[in-house]
Amino acid sequence: MQKLPCVLLVDDDPTTNFLNRKLLERLAVSDQIAVALNGREALDKLRAQCGQQPAGHPVLLFLDLNMPIMNGIQFLEAYRQLPPAQQCAVVVVMLTTSVHPQDVQRVGQLPVNDFLHKPLTQQQVERVLQQHFA
C-alpha cells in the first residue's frame, strides 16, 4: 500500500501520541505524522495545511474524545462548519477509552468514519488502511 501524505494524531496525552506515532512509523503508514494536543490545535493545523498545501494535508486523523480546551465532539462540530476551502478529505477515526453509550451515540451523528478503542494496535491500523485507503 502506498504511504499516506500525512496523518494527524489528536490526543492530550503525550505518551499516547508518542506510542501511536511509533506504531505508525513502524508500519510505514506515512512520512509525515503531525500531533495536536486538543481539538483547537487540530483545527488550526487543518486550516493551515488544507488551505495552503493541499498535497500535504492530513488524510487520516486519529481523534481522542475526551480532551481539555476542545474535545473530539466539539472538534467535529467545528470542523463541519469550516468553509469548503479549509476542509480536507480526511478519514476521521475516533480513538477513545470511552464506552459510554451517550458518547457512542453522539459520535455516530457526526462525520466520523470509524470508532476504535484505545490502545491503537497494528491490527486496527491495518483494518483502517484496508477499509478506507485500499
Task: Briefly summarize what is shown.
With 134 residues, this protein is α/β, with parallel strands linked by helices. The protein contains 5 helices and 5 strands, in the order βαβαβαβαβα.
Question: How would you characterize this protein structure?
Answer:
- This protein is α/β, with parallel strands linked by helices.
- It has a single domain (7-133), classed as Rossmann fold.
- Helices cover 41% and strands 16% of the residues.
- The chain has helices at residues 14-26, 39-52, 72-79, 101-108, 122-133, and strands at residues 7-10, 33-36, 60-63, 91-96, 114-117.
- Strands 2-1-3-4-5 form a five-stranded parallel sheet.
- Helix 2 runs parallel beside helix 3 (72-79).
- The longest helix has 14 residues, at 39-52.
- It is globular.
- The mean pLDDT is 89.
User: How many strands, which pairing sense, and closed or not: the largest β-sheet?
Assistant: 5 strands, parallel
Number of separate strands: 5
Mean pLDDT: 89
**What string, H for helix and E for strand, traces the elements in order?**
EHEHEHEHEH
At the fourth level of CATH, the homologous superfamily is Response regulator
- Which percent bin holds the helix content? 40-55%
User: How many discrete domains?
Assistant: 1
What's the CATH topology name?
Answer: Rossmann fold
Order of strands, main sheet, comes to: 2-1-3-4-5
Low-pLDDT stretches are none
Going by CATH, the architecture would be: 3-Layer(aba) Sandwich
Q: What's the CATH C level? A: Alpha Beta
The rounded distance between the terminal residues' Cα atoms is: 7 Å
Portion in beta strands: 15-25%
Helix/strand-derived category reads alpha/beta
Q: Compute the gyration radius: what is it? A: 14 Å
Oligomer: single chain
